[in-house]
Specification:
The complex is a heterodimer. By secondary structure, chain A is mainly alpha-helical. In chain A, helix 4 packs across helix 6, helix 6 runs antiparallel to helix 9 and helix 11 runs antiparallel to helix 12. Helices cover 78% and strands 0% of the residues of chain A. Chain A has one domain: MetI-like (MetI-like fold, Orthogonal Bundle), CATH 1.10.3720. By secondary structure, chain B is an alpha+beta fold. Chain B contains 8 helices and 19 strands. In chain B, strands 6-7-8-3-9-10 form a 6-stranded mixed sheet, sandwiched between helices. The chains are: A mainly alpha, B alpha+beta. The interface between A and B is medium-sized, with 24 and 31 residues.
Chain lengths: 262, 353
């Protein structure tokens, strides 16, 4: 019994070291910019770079817009599929999974062919149009996670009966959606939102090919030209992702603590 | 004139017709229960009244107004669901206030009405609690207050007690009836529990396979069931197969024993088979002076049910159950014992198929 336990711990230690040692190495390297002493010079250099602030701010804004528009697309869709069109559920699930199997580069080339400046809808002909296109492409990338998170949250509540209860009290569908359904799937929406945030902050392909000043292409640019700053940026990117994951955990715990009792 | 009038209501799901020619008028302030087994169409009729299902045929009129073209949120109907359906993100106050807010009532009016409703269900002290902090019974009372807050013309209750434990069910059904009488609200109650329906209804509709088999007061439904289904579904009833000897004199044989029904049997002739019903409480083996009819038989089994002891007796090819009150001195018969079952012939009901 003890030998089995020991074996399990060794397996966990090997697995953990596979992930942790490179991270520690990156962290350690990011602190060695000053010769002979550990310092935060690389981080200082990153944070003082105007391009970092611009690209980080841009990606943050895109992430927030993607989350808002993503929620407005996904929550009503999941709601209607669950309530009125359960027969199209497999089709919707398939569509939402497509971004996982179609590479981002294929999607973005498709966008460029469809929405170039000589097309019927020339989104790439203007900065605001390209920004809009990038936001929609981020929405596409986050769709598998956002849809599943919201759908799972909807499964936890009795959508049909809540809708009927609200209808019998005189409510119309916008009231039902925004006052009765949305608040009760907020944990799912937030989980989807944090994943979306992490995806948008690190996304490179779409932003680079649409030539937008996002954080992903900036990471690549710094990585190609500097020594210590890329490690500092990698640690910052990990910190953002982990913060998002931590918030997902917190939200799901909060949801468990307020789940209805029988 | 009926306040809620259902005329020739029909409902089909694809090729399957689940409600057939349902006709009924319900008076203002009346408490009517739809009683029947699962799948008999009672909830479908209720959902058609609420507007959640569209009838395939027929009309629903409330207070002279046809509801056919109205959506659920345009009908002034309150509904209480089996699964409570309280909004989990709102506390008790906000749940009860929801319909009033939707209707655009002022804050002062909302607060007054919510207070009044919570007082009615005696949960004023729990106004700040969320649904998950309440017991099932409390949640259902809040759901009732929420449905009543908007002063609906008709209150629909869809098996509201099914998810509750036995004690709470009894106390809550009495509370529902008391509130209904206090407010004088027209109420339709769906249940598969006959005791529930019998105890709180003004009238009961016994439904079977999408049809109303019998509509009547609880007393009529229990004592004079119109069909074999009603007889077997409501209460415990012995169905006894008998043979007609003389239809004009009302004489039959049960297990070869002659029995006189004391009234003529219409549309049957000598030698025909007939189904008779006898309530378990109508028979006795202890009281020699009880009834005018005696049937000898053999005890098959005895069950102790608390306040009564139920004995099964074989009479010819039929097995007849009868109840006797449990007294400390009662000595139940044992299996194999030969006894004589006595009852009044007027307690035998002729059952039409």
């Amino acid at each position: 019994m003890k030998a089995q336990r020991l074996g399990a711990w060794i397996a966990i230690a090997i697995g953990a070291s596979y992930f942790i040692i490179p991270l520690l190495g990156t962290l350690e390297f990011s602190l060695r910019m000053r010769r002979g002493a550990y310092s935060f010079d690389a981080y200082q250099s990153v944070f003082s770079d105007i391009q970092f602030r611009e690209t980080f701010g841009y990606s943050m804004l895109m992430a927030v817009l993607t989350i808002i528009f993503g929620m407005l697309l996904v929550v009503p869709t999941a709601y209607w599929v669950r309530l009125r069109l359960p027969q199209v559920r497999p089709v919707v699930e398939f569509v939402t999974l497509l971004p996982l199997v179609i590479p981002a580069i294929v999607i973005v080339f498709g966008y460029l062919r469809l929405y170039n400046s000589s097309s019927i809808l020339p989104l790439t002909g203007s900065t605001s149009g390209t920004n809009t296109l990038l936001m929609f492409s981020y929405m596409t990338l986050s769709l598998p996670y956002m849809y599943r998170a919201v759908d799972t949250a909807m499964r936890a509540i009795d959508v049909r009966t809540l809708t009927e209860a609200a209808e019998s009290l005189g409510a119309k569908w916008p009231t039902i959606l925004f006052r009765c359904i949305f608040p009760n799937v907020m944990s799912g929406v937030l989980s989807g939102a944090f994943i979306t945030f992490a995806i948008v902050m690190g996304e490179f392909t779409m932003a680079a090919l649409l030539n937008r000043p996002a954080f992903g292409p900036y990471l690549q640019l710094v990585g190609a030209n500097k020594a210590y700053e890329p490690s500092a940026l990698a640690v910052i990117a990990f910190a953002i992702t982990w913060l998002s994951m931590g918030l997902i955990q917190l939200v799901s715990r909060f949801q468990k603590s307020v789940s209805p009792k029988a | 004139m009926a306040f809620l009038k259902l005329t020739n209501i029909q409902k089909s799901f694809g090729p399957v017709q689940v409600v057939h020619n349902f006709d009924m008028g319900i008076s203002k302030g009346e408490f009517v229960s739809f009683l029947g087994p699962s799948g008999c169409g009672k909830t479908t009729v209720l959902r058609m009244i609420a507007g959640f299902e569209t009838p395939s045929g027929g009309s629903i009129v409330i207070d002279g107004k046809d509801q056919g073209t109205l959506k659920p949120n345009q009908r002034n109907i309150g509904m209480v669901f089996q699964a409570y359906a309280l909004f989990p993100n709102m506390n008790v106050h906000d749940n009860v206030a929801f319909g009033l807010k939707v209707a655009g009532a002022s804050k002062a009016d909302i607060d007054t009405r919510v207070k009044q409703m919570l007082g009615l269900i005696k949960l004023g002290h729990l106004a700040d609690r969320f649904p998950y902090q309440l017991s099932g019974g409390q949640q259902q009372r809040v759901a009732l207050a929420r449905a009543l807050a908007v002063k609906p013309q008709v209150l629909l209750l869809d098996e509201p007690l099914s998810a509750l434990d036995a004690k709470i069910r009894i106390s809550l059904r009495e509370e529902i009836r008391q509130i209904q009488q206090q407010l004088g609200i027209t109420t339709v109650f769906v249940t598969h529990d006959q005791e529930e329906a019998l105890s709180i209804s003004d009238r009961i509709v016994v439904m079977n396979a999408g049809r109303a088999d019998q509509i009547g007061t609880p007393f009529e439904i229990y004592n004079t069931p119109a069909t074999r289904f009603v007889a077997s579904f409501v209460g415990t009833l012995n169905i006894i197969e008998a043979k007609v000897i003389d239809p004009a004199a009302g004489s039959v044989t049960i297990g070869g024993q002659p029995v006189s029904l004391k009234e003529p049997i219409a549309s049957l002739k000598g030698g025909d088979s007939i189904s008779l019903a006898l309530r378990p409480e109508a028979g006795s083996i202890a009281d020699g002076s009880r009834g005018d009819t005696a049937l000898p038989g053999e005890v098959v089994s005895t069950s102790f049910l608390g306040s009564v002891i139920r004995t099964k007796l074989r009479v010819g090819s039929d097995v007849i159950s009868f109840d006797m009150f449990n007294n400390p001195g009662t000595v139940p018969p044992v299996a194999g014992e030969n006894v004589t079952l006595r009852f009044a012939a007027k307690d035998l009901l002729v059952i039409r198929e």
